[in-house]
Write a structure and sequence with these properties.
By secondary structure, this protein is mainly α. It has helices at about 5-25, 30-50, 65-85, 85-110, 115-120. Helix 1 (about 5-25) packs across helix 4 (about 85-110), helix 2 runs antiparallel to helix 3 and helix 3 packs antiparallel against helix 4 (about 85-110). The radius of gyration is 16 Å and the shape is elongated. The protein has one domain (about 5-120).
């Protein structure tokens, strides 16, 4: 089981995105810290989503890459919404994109996937 630099960058960016996005969603909206963490989250999400396309199974993209496409669309739509002052659309889009990130993380931890196998095997559960 091999973890290439691309996979490691993807894992660290996704992990950071879970943390930064969760904090941004939990904070009072519109504050300087919320906006700062939101920008960090967007950058980490871009690294995560775009980097995922370099991670392939047997040379091919898998169904989980659809979540990367949805993440990129969600980020774009949410940023466009906030730029137009459509705050409710921005909140909804960012919330759904964050939920998609968490769902992708859950799928990544399935025992038949690289990271999932490593986690579950290290814990002695498989």
């Amino acid at each position: 089981m091999q973890f290439t630099p691309v996979i490691l960058i993807h894992i660290f960016a996704a992990s950071g995105a879970v943390l930064a996005g969760g904090l941004a969603l939990a904070l009072k909206k519109g504050t300087t810290l919320h906006r700062f963490l939101g920008r960090i989250w967007v950058a980490l999400m871009l690294v995560t989503a775009l980097g995922s396309f370099a991670i392939r199974s047997n040379g091919h993209l898998s169904w989980i890459h659809l979540l990367s496409v949805l993440a990129l669309a969600g980020l774009g739509a949410s940023l466009f919404a906030v730029a137009r002052g459509r705050i409710q659309a921005h909140r909804r889009g960012m919330r759904y994109t964050y939920i998609g990130l968490v769902i992708a993380g859950v799928f990544t931890l399935l025992p038949d996937r690289r990271l999932g196998y490593l986690v579950w095997h290290s814990a002695g559960l498989i």
